[in-house]
Specification:
Elements (H helix, E strand, L loop, with lengths): L1 E8 L1 E2 L11 E2 L5 H16 L7 E9 L7 H15 L6 E6 L6 H10 L3 E7 L3 H7 L5 H13 L5 E7 L6 H14 L3 E6 L7 H7 L8 H17 L3 E4 L2 E3 L6 H7 L4 E4 L4 E4 L6 E4 L4 H9 L6 E5 L2 H12 L6 E2 H8 L3 H4 L1 H9 L3 E4 L2 E4 L1 H5 L1 H5 L4
Parallel strand pairs: 1-4, 1-11, 2-3, 4-5, 5-6, 6-7, 7-8
Antiparallel strand pairs: 8-10, 9-10, 12-13, 13-14, 15-17, 16-17
Helix pairs in contact: 1-2, 1-10, 2-3, 3-5, 6-8
C-alpha cells in the first residue's frame, strides 16, 4: 500500500483575520514535546496498516510550521523514513510564512531533507496585508523568497489571495505581475472566502467589509488563468498553477481520492478501504491530542465509513477540481457503472448549461464551469 503523509503544526505567531484553520497564536507546549507525540502517533498508526506500506510525499502544514526548529523538522523526516519507508525521491514540503525564516534556517531545512517550499506571501500590497491581519510586510515576502533561492530551493510555491476588501481587477493584475516576476515554480491563487467564526465573518455581518462584487471576483479568476497561462504556468486545478513538471504531487492525492495519513492536532486522514473508503480526524486541541498519545491510544474521531454513493460523489466533486476532470473509464472500473448511468440528469443538465463538457473521455469543467464550480459540485453531493 502506498500513502502520503501530512503533519499538522497548529501554532502560529498571530491568527489572521480570515483564517479558520485549526491553529492558535502562541503555545506553552514545547516544540519537542509536540514532535515526540507526532512521532509516537506515526508508530501507533503504522501498527494498524498493512505490511509494506510506504509513503511518496510528506507535507508539513499549519499553523506556521516554519516556526519549528530545523532539528525537529529533520526528526519528523527521519521518523517518516523509518516508520513509513518514505521514498528517496519523495516530495517533502514545508509551509513557511515570510518573516519567520531567513537564509540560514531555510538552508538548514534543505539539509534536513525538505525539497519544496510553500511560501505564504498572500499579497504584494502593504495595505492588503494589513487588512488580512498578516504579520509580515511586502519586504519580508520578497526577502524570504530570495533567501529560499540562495538556500538552494529549486521548487518554491507561493500563495496569493484575490477578491480582497477594496481590491480592484487592476490591483489584482499588478499582484500577478509581481508574482510572475519572481518566477516561482508554483502559484496558488485563492479567492477569499468568508468562513463562519472568523473576524472577517463578523466584520462582513456588521457591514465593515467592502468585498468586490461577484462579477469582479469572477473577472479576477478568469484573468488569473489568462495572465499566468501567458507566463507559462499550467492551470491544473481550480486555484493552482505550475510551471511544467512542478505540480504539487501531495495535493493531487487529495483531489484524486488517494490515501493520506494526517498526524498532529486536527489532522485529517483518508484510506481507500474498506471497500469505498474511510475518513477520520484527530482531536483539534494539542492538549487532547497529546493526552491520547500519552496513553498509547491511536487518536481519531468522527470516523466515517463511506458508502458507494458517497465515494462516487466524492470522485466527482474532487476530481472535477482538476483541469483534466474525471476519467470516465477509471470511474467505471472503480464502481462498475458509467458516469452517465449514475448521474444522468445532473450531467445532462450541466452539459446543456455549458458548465461541463466531455473531452477525450473525461468529464470536465468548462471555463464558465470553473467560475461557478461550487454550483456544479453541489449537484453531486
Amino acid at each position: 500500500m502506498q500513502t502520503t503523509l501530512y503533519v499538522h503544526f497548529p501554532f502560529c505567531v498571530r491568527k489572521c483575520l480570515y483564517c479558520d484553520f485549526n491553529s492558535r497564536a502562541g503555545s506553552e507546549i514545547p516544540q519537542a514535546a509536540y514532535i515526540d507525540a507526532l512521532v509516537r502517533e506515526m508508530e501507533l498508526r503504522r501498527d494498524t496498516l498493512p505490511e509494506g506500506t510506504s509513503a511518496s510525499t510528506l507535507y508539513l502544514g499549519g499553523g506556521t510550521p516554519s516556526l519549528l526548529e530545523p532539528a525537529l523538522v529533520e526528526r519528523i523526516i527521519n521518523a517518516a523514513s523509518r516508520i513509513f519507508s518514505l521514498e528517496p525521491a519523495a516530495e517533502i514540503t514545508i509551509e513557511a510564512n515570510p518573516g519567520t525564516v531567513n537564509r540560514e534556517r531555510l538552508a538548514d531545512y534543505r539539509s534536513a531533507g525538505v525539497n519544496r517550499l510553500s511560501l505564504g506571501i498572500q499579497s504584494f500590497s502593504e495595505d492588503m496585508l494589513a487588512r488580512l491581519g498578516r504579520v509580515h510586510t511586502v519586504h519580508d515576502g520578497l526577502s524570504s523568497f530570495a533567501a529560499a533561492r540562495t538556500a538552494g530551493f529549486a521548487n518554491i510555491g507561493i500563495d496569493l489571495i484575490h477578491s480582497l476588501p477594496g481590491q480592484t481587477l487592476e490591483m489584482w493584475r499588478a499582484e500577478l505581475d509581481r508574482a510572475v516576476d519572481l518566477r516561482p515554480e508554483h502559484i496558488s491563487a485563492y479567492g477569499l472566502t468568508i468562513e463562519a467564526g472568523t473576524p472577517f465573518h463578523a466584520m462582513e455581518r456588521s457591514g465593515e467589509l467592502a468585498l468586490p462584487e461577484e462579477e469582479t471576483a469572477a473577472e479576477m479568476f478568469e484573468n488569473t488563468s489568462e495572465q499566468l497561462g501567458e507566463a507559462g504556468f499550467e492551470h491544473y486545478e481550480i486555484s493552482n498553477f505550475s510551471l511544467p513538471g512542478f505540480r504539487s504531487r501531495h495535493n493531487q492525492v487529495y483531489w484524486q481520492r488517494g490515501d493520506y495519513l494526517g498526524f498532529g492536532a486536527g489532522a485529517h486522514s483518508f484510506l481507500s478501504f474498506p471497500p469505498f473508503g474511510s475518513r477520520w480526524k484527530n482531536p483539534d486541541t494539542p492538549e487532547s491530542y497529546m493526552q491520547s498519545i500519552a496513553y498509547d491510544v491511536v487518536p481519531g474521531e468522527e470516523l466515517s465509513i463511506l458508502t458507494e454513493q458517497e465515494a462516487m460523489s466524492e470522485s466527482l466533486f474532487l476530481g472535477l477540481r482538476m483541469m483534466e476532470g474525471v476519467d470516465g473509464n477509471s470511474f467505471r472500473l472503480e464502481f462498475g457503472r458509467p458516469l452517465e448511468e449514475v448521474y444522468p440528469e445532473e450531467i445532462r443538465a450541466l452539459l446543456s448549461e455549458g458548465l461541463l463538457e466531455w473531452q477525450k473521455g473525461h468529464l470536465r469543467l468548462t471555463c464558465r464551469g470553473f467560475i461557478l464550480a461550487n454550483q456544479v459540485f453541489i449537484r453531486f453531493v
